[in-house]
Write the structure tokens for this entry.
Amino acid sequence: AACYDSVLDLALEQAVLSIAFPAISAGIYVYPLELASCVAIRTVPARIVAGLSLHKIIFCCFGSDTIATYNHLISSNLFEFIG
């Protein structure tokens, strides 16, 4: 979460309008994909709600497992997105 927060702080500082995130730490660092995905899709929208203005956020998923995990978590009722 701290990594996402740091990147989003830089995005705010630089007035970035769009940003893309990979599944941070879920590759070579072997952090569990589902946990990494949960961190991403909880942290990023929370910052948007808190006032960070981005026009586009992309979760860049490399591989079918990553895509399926993100799609499952985003489509479930576990997370509320305000936009």
In short: Helices lie at 2-13, 33-49, 64-75. The first strand starts at residue 18 and ends at 21. The chain has three helices and two strands. The mean pLDDT is 83.
